[in-house]
Specification:
303 residues, alpha/beta, Rossmann fold, 2 domains, seven-stranded parallel sheet, 12 helices, 17% strand, globular, binds NADP nicotinamide-adenine-dinucleotide phosphate
Length: 303
């Protein structure tokens, strides 16, 4: 995807993938800086670690609490920090690493463009509270969803995200669903300490849900169970179902949702848009989305 984008922009650059042990991340970032790399992308588990390792953080990295893109920068003749490619190599003396997050906006852009759904005012059932689930929950709250229902196997993790949202985005009605009656009182009591306005209840939302968003890893394997109760899905038939998983292209959740007439999309758009934004940050040019999408789909699906 990146090399296709780079070629379409006519840049003489290369994008390489390197396996780095988390213990070696500071050396990898400093090594790339020393070799005058233009930038880096980072994936799990480096996104959180890199927060402490960048010389400066963009607001996106501070707001969403993770770095997935680094741009190396130097000073131009006027003393302003600019991307490395804007200054001749023999005039580069001081370099800094600038950390960004392009993941969070990519979730919203993909839901907007691939499902045609405007999130402001929507009611969302979010499945999963891992790294991607947390980012999605915060970003959807910032987008102004009206109701956010959080469901996760480890219910305390959903509770922690709910507390964070109720503090940062008090306009969003936030609910945590738990699967057994005892858990309701237990979680509600532990959340009370935070003085947060969070509704804890058992089972599944009884109110209207516009979008079901899967951010669990259930669906990566063909024999995985659905990440939610199929009877609820069949009865409630939300208009939109989005699965962050993009391989397989159609998870069991998406297949079931499609058969019910829901509009569906997988996570390939999310992957595309975080990469496109990274290329824009490095190059200062608009990303050639069509070329990048074609290369990505060819790489992931072989067609
Ligand atoms: N399209 C994209 O660009 C993109 C980007 C990032 C992630 N993703 C996808 O999003 C998914 C989550 O990624 P992540 O980075 O958030 O991973 P993560 O931090 O490891 O979180 C995994 C999530 O899945 C849940 N889960 C795992 N196994 C489960 C099971 N057997 N039953 C019920 N729940 C289970 C976990 O619940 P617990 O909290 O209980 O463990 C947690 O909520 C993955 O499928 C990943 O491929 C896609």
């Amino acid at each position: 995807m990146q090399n296709a984008g780079i070629a379409a922009l006519g840049l003489n650059w290369r994008y390489l993938a390197c396996e780095v042990h988390p213990n070696d991340l500071p050396f990898a970032i400093n090594g790339a800086k020393a070799m005058k790399f233009l930038g880096l992308n980072l994936t799990v588990p480096h996104k959180l670690l890199a927060l402490q390792m960048c010389d400066v953080l963009d607001e996106s990295a501070r707001t969403w609490g993770a770095v997935n893109t680094i741009r190396f920068e130097t000073r131009n003749k006027a003393g302003a920090w600019v991307p490395l490619n804007e200054v001749p190599a023999d005039e580069i003396f001081e370099i800094r690493s600038h950390g960004f997050n392009t993941d969070a906006d990519a979730i919203v852009r993909s839901i907007n463009e691939d499902l045609g759904l405007t999130l402001r005012g929507a009611s969302v059932l979010l499945l999963g509270a891992g790294g991607a689930g947390r980012a999605a929950a915060l970003r959807l709250a910032a987008e102004g969803v009206s109701n956010l229902f959080l469901l996760n196997r480890t219910e305390e993790k959903a509770g922690q995200i709910a507390v964070e949202i109720s503090t940062r985005f008090p306009g969003v009605r936030i609910h945590v669903t738990v699967q057994n009656a005892n858990g309701v009182a237990e979680l509600a009591n532990s959340l009370k300490r935070h003085n947060a306005a969070i509704n804890v209840f058992q089972g599944y939302p009884r109110d209207r849900v516009d979008l079901v968003l899967n951010a669990t890893s259930l669906g990566l394997k063909s024999n995985d169970p659905l990440p939610l109760d199929v009877n609820w899905l069949r009865f409630n038939k939300p208009h939109f179902v989005y699965d962050m998983i993009y391989r397989p292209a159609e998870t069991n959740l998406l297949r079931e949702a499609k058969s019910l007439g829901c509009k569906t999309a997988n996570g390939i758009g999310m992957l595309l848009y975080q990469g496109a934004k990274a290329l824009e940050l490095w190059s200062g040019k608009s990303a050639p989305i069509a070329e990048m999408r074609r290369a990505l789909e060819k790489n992931v699906y072989g067609s």
